[in-house]
Amino acid sequence: MGRLNTSPEGSTTTKPGGWLAALEQSQKPNELWSLPQEFTDPFASLQRRLIATLDSYRYSKAPRNLIDWAEAQTGLADPMTKYTRQDLEQAFDRFDRDRTLHLRDLVRQAKQQSGGRILKQLRQTTPWPAARSALEKALNS
Predict the structure, then answer these.
(1) How far apart are CA 98 and CA 100, in angstroms?
(2) Are 73 and 141 in contact (CB under 8 A)?
């Protein structure tokens, strides 16, 4: 059992550094690769979730795109203050894998709900070539 530390204010903690250190350590370790809420929100329409997911294909491992993605994922103005480039690249690979699996699931749902009508429309209107390619692969899987 850890030794209790008492701060000058009288609060008791079990970790050196106090409540602030505990708060910092409690941040989600998967903030980089977890899928954003707009991808998975059960209260959003299927079309809205598909659009949000496809829109994320504007990000890639290219240097500026990777930083833009990390900013969007973490809310940090400069994610390089907290993560290394290697951390970002590895997290992006995991995010990309999870996003692809999620897109396949959304495509399956869209085929069931609308016979693919939404998918045909999105295939023509999405501005990102990587998104169109991913949508084609999901349609064929």
Answers:
(1) 5
(2) no
Q: Is the dihedral of CA 95, 105, 46, 43 positive or negative?
A: negative
Distance between CA atoms of 66 and 134, rounded to whole angstroms?
18
Any residues with CB less than 8 A from the CB of 111 and at least 6 apart, and which?
119
DSSP assigned state of 44: S
pTM metric for this prediction: 0.77
Cβ proximity of 32 and 91 under 8 Å: yes
What are 82-129's pLDDT values in tens digits? 999 999 999 999 999 999 999 999 999 999 998 888 999 999 999 999
Residue the block writes with tokens 């977890």: 34
The burial of 100, by beta-carbon neighbours within 10 Å (0-12 exposed, 13-18 middle, 19 or more buried), is given as: middle
Amino acid at 64: R
Q: Is the separation of the CB atoms in 65 and 73 below 8 Å?
A: no
**Radius of gyration of the CA atoms of the chain, in A:** 20
Burial class (CB within 10 angstroms; exposed 0-12, middle 13-18, buried 19+) of 55: middle
Strand partners, 6: 12
